[in-house]
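# nightly structure sweep
# worker-07 picked up a monomer target from the shared queue
# config: single-sequence mode, recycle default, output format = structure tokens
# input follows
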Amino acid sequence: MFQIIFATGNQGKMREIQAIMGDCKAEIISMKEAGFDLEIEESGTTFEENALIKARAVADALAARGEAQTCVVMADDSGLEIDCLNGEPGVYSARYLGEETPFDVKSRDFLRRMADVPEEKRNARFVCAIAAVFPDGESVTTNGIVDGRIGYELRGDNGFGYDPIFYLPEYGRTAAELSDEEKNQISHRSRALKLMKEELKKRMF
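# output follows
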């Protein structure tokens, strides 16, 4: 059985990935479970570039270990884009106010900055790019987007990152108030992963 190694250490993200990709004929593990503890500099200027940088770093480490022919390496880069803040935080979503700063602190800072922004100008979106590097060195990227608005307070505890301030008008709830099943149907990551599953079927299965 092929392995899919995902270049992340985020367990919340891994649970989401394994749920969405569970019907693939592959074992899906994190890079740490595969024995890699890499510090990867995300130097790209787009989500696609950063996802590919991370995937290639792990693929190169696999090749050095002589295991590149047994694994597909995948990585994602995702973030929040807020229209009234000129697309902030964008590719800097995880690094906004410092990587060690808790997301509730980051989120409250955006709420403070947007305190006087009216409802019709609070549009935002979550964006996700997924990159895959195949055993032959070829790569492909897919993208997923979900549109919403920035709310007025943190709501919900069934999510991570900026989910508690990302309000979905069609659901009347934030992303952090959705069930796992609902989120896996509509999230930016699920949309990119579902497209990636089709790419994997073309090449691997």
